[in-house]
Amino acid sequence: MTRLLVVDDEHLIRDAIIGLLDLEEDFEIVGRAASGDEALATALRVRPDVALLDLQLPGPNGIEVTRRLSAELPDCRCIIVTSHARPGYLKSALAAGARGFLPKTASSRTFAEVVRSVAAGGRYVDPELAAEAISAGDSPLTTRESDVLALARDGAPVDEIARRVSLSPGTVRNYLAAAIAKLGTANRHEAVRIAAERGWI
Prior knowledge:
The chain is α/β, with parallel strands linked by helices. It contains ten helices and six strands; from the N terminus they run E-H-E-H-E-H-E-H-E-H-E-H-H-H-H-H.
């Protein structure tokens, strides 16, 4: 029997995943959570074989939860299940220790097969997303450029971004200019769009 933890902050989605996996005779749902912090606490308490983690969670996101569980509970294999299937997120998830990366558009049969494969020690990455990740390449942005660009995503003015990252407005402008140049865009709005599409921010 494979013991599962299901984590998603959208209750309808989480209940649907649990309902789907409950139909399989070899799966047992031993925990559920709606946030990154709750996922970590629950995993350490129930010690599941496999944790299915939404990418976007309140608190630590699915990738950060994966990173921590890989260190603190190495026998727990993590699968990221997401509607934000971007190449950059895939690379970050695998680097954090995820054994699977699955879009929420996957069929119920694929879902169950992936969980079984990962529980048995295998890995799974959606083939289409894997191809996109290879063609997209690695992010050309530095960590600081990514941070500043991510804050610009909400349309925050330079002064506000500077305050939030504890930098001068001039330094923030330099980081934004560098990101725009590296991504070959005309302005920061286009740079944000491209970086978000590729999962770099």
